[in-house]
Write a structure and sequence with these properties.
With 187 residues, the chain is mainly α. It has helices at 2-8, 36-46, 76-90, 93-104, 140-153, 155-176, 179-186, and strands spanning 18-20, 23-25, 56-60, 110-114. It folds into 2 domains: 1-30, no CATH class; 35-186, no CATH class. GO terms for molecular function: calcium-independent phospholipase A2 activity. This is PNPLA domain-containing protein.
């Protein structure tokens, strides 16, 4: 599991690629940090182009980052473009909205995004890691943990988590009753 997590976080400006077995993996996040729609279509493709095969899509966000505003001035403009390019590579909301709109058009599909909106995580930079000190009451990790725990206590989030868990359990139970699944799972 750690290798998968490491491979998905191998942002090229921060980490090297990682070799797992014979394959080398790296983050393909420039413009694809939220792969929800790509994964949806991949599941369909794996099931003979059957859109109904995908009943549930779960997207886990990292908070919303703020929009980039362009500054004026001789050097500010090019820097603004560079910052905008970085923002495009990390802003996942557009993919979420696209998946949400698409999912509503399907009768047999549930799409859920868990994302700690407006809770401050969007302001944390990818390479930020601050320790606790007299000027800072919590480290970056403690802040992320606190915000995440607060988010997971939200009654609407709890309701969504329970609904999704119920769907996953039902799907697993139904799948376990087929000969095809038994052959796949047990060999």
């Amino acid at each position: 599991i750690w290798e998968v997590a490491r491979a998905t976080s191998a942002a090229p400006t921060y980490f090297n690629t990682i070799k797992i077995g014979e394959n080398e993996y790296g983050d393909a996040g420039f413009g694809v940090n939220n792969p929800s729609t790509r994964l949806f279509w991949e599941v369909c493709q794996m099931n003979n182009e059957n859109v109904s095969a995908n009943e549930l899509s779960i997207s886990i966000g990292t908070g919303i980052s703020r929009f980039t505003r362009f500054q004026t001035g001789l050097f500010a403009r090019p820097i603004g473009w560079i910052n905008a390019a970085k923002k495009v590579s990390t802003d996942c909301e557009e993919a979420h909205l696209e998946m949400e709109r698409f999912s509503k058009s399907l009768a047999n599909h549930k799409y859920v995004r868990f994302n700690p909106l407006d809770r401050g995580l969007g302001k944390i930079k990818l390479d930020e890691w601050k320790s606790r000190g007299w000027w800072r009451k919590e480290s970056t990790q403690e802040e992320i943990e606190r915000v995440t725990k607060e988010y997971l206590k939200d009654p609407e989030v709890v309701k969504q988590l329970e609904e999704v868990a119920g769907m996953m359990v039902s799907h697993r139970r139904a799948r376990a009753r087929t000969d095809r699944w038994e052959t796949y799972a047990l060999g």
